[in-house]
Amino acid sequence: MTTPPAPTASTADLHRVVDAVWRMESARIVGALARVTGDVGLAEELAQDALVAALEQWPETGVPAKPGAWLMAIAKHRAIDTFRRSQNLQRKTEELGRDLVDREAVEEDWAAALDEVVEDDVLRLVFISCHPVLSREARVALTLRLVGGLTTDEIARAFLVPEKTLAQRIVRAKRTLTAVRVPFEMPAGEEFTARIASVLEVLYLVFNEGYSATAGEDLIRPSLCQEAMRLGRILAGLVPGEPEVHGLVALMEIQASRLASRVGPDGQAVTLTDQDRTTWDRVLISRGLAALQRAEDAGAALGPYALQASIAACHARAASVEDTDWARIAALYEALAELTRSPVVELNRAVAVSRAYGAGAGLQLVDALAGESALQGYHLLPTVRGDLLEQLGRRDEARAEFERAATLTRNERERALLLDRAAACGPRLGA
């Protein structure tokens, strides 16, 4: 087999330009096509045709002055061609007895609809991609594909699944949306509330996978965090009156400010206690605090994301671990626990309580969570317990907890950190 020649620098540069344009414009193009065709799967195929055309033509013609408009025009032509070939249209034309002039008029109306600039197209696409009829995994994949403009390979690599598996997941998701005839429209009332919760959940899942990878050799995947923040900012601009959207943006911005400090020179994990706070990104922190202020200015009680952002803000404002207002963080976690009824939140509250009122008080809360089924197999439960036991001088018990936590995590960097902490507790008694 002949190995294809490596792309030239100019070709590689062009591909980067095409990728950048696609990331910025694909959601708008797919959204406009989906609005007119009523089929998300078909809309993405037509948009992909435009992308292929760009890769074929731009090397010869150069990048057009308005690349997004160029892609939209090509996609529009592909859509009209598809419309003309539609058996449904032919059957409808025969049934109505329309002549050629009438048919051309219908095509013109259809083309004109594609020319309309509908500001809600992208927002509708977000809500469809995150429709609750889909599984969590499908919502994440479809959102990154349709709204984020990521390739199937990029998404598969980010979540450490085979590309074939990820592709099948996306195909099934689009078929499901078509089968249940999800309308390309904005939900209203209670349905909007339910769907916005699904949208925020998807964005936070994407961000968290980047902030703390669940498996693999990398502790963090910054590209996923950046994509989640980009989509969050877009959403905040589209629905500026939703405080929880601003709360999630605030949370992601402030958390992302610590990304670089979470990993040491050799790729090892660095805990919050040991992080160099001078390396935290002050620009992201200021953006996050501004987003949190917008959430608070809405006047409503803070929701789960805004509460978590408030907790992150306490860390961001403190010059050191010792200067942190742990009592306020514990109170915020208590409010968050009342909203979510989450044992994971209770575990985090236990950490804050230990900082504010002593390791013994925190350990009592942790031990009360031992029977929670949701925490069985969760590596952070023995991690937190080990940390508190170590603070109390019960080093042999602490070592056992760190070792157990190491067997539960699927992330290689976290496992190494936990085994190091176990070793630091000293040899076993009687060994």
Give descriptors for this structure.
disordered N terminus, 431 residues, 2 strands, two-stranded parallel ribbon, mainly alpha
Can you tell me about this structure?
With 431 residues, the protein is mostly helical. The chain has four domains: 9-115, no CATH class; 119-233, no CATH class; 240-317; 377-431, no CATH class. The protein has 20 helices and two strands. Helix 1 (9-37) packs across helix 3, helix 10 (189-211) runs antiparallel to helix 11 (222-238) and helix 12 runs antiparallel to helix 13 (282-297). It is elongated. Residues 28-87 form the RNA polymerase sigma-70 region domain. Belongs to the sigma-70 factor family. ECF subfamily. This is RNA polymerase sigma factor.
Overall tally of structural domains: 4
Number of discrete helical segments: 20
Give the averaged pLDDT, no decimals.
85
Biggest sheet: strand arrangement:
1-2
Low-pLDDT windows of residues = 1-9, 96-103
Beta-strand content bin: under 5%
Structural class: mainly alpha
